[in-house]
Amino acid sequence: MQQLKEIQTSLRKLSNDVTQLQENISDLQAALPAVASFVSEVKRDVKKWQFKTQPRLNRIQIILDVLKIDSDEQKK
Fold it and tell me: Which residues form a coiled coil (predicted)?
């Protein structure tokens, strides 16, 4: 008899856990559009930052290349 009560208690707990899991899944699914929107905004900001910084990085690389050439010529 005791074992039957333990099984019933375990089944109730399992049922409660499944219900909680379903609620959490629903919450996650409801939050998904906001997360997707945030991700797309971040991607857009990253592309914008890369677009703005790339010309500067190219100029810095040119300056470094010229300085390296000058340094190499002075060593000769």
Answer: 4-31
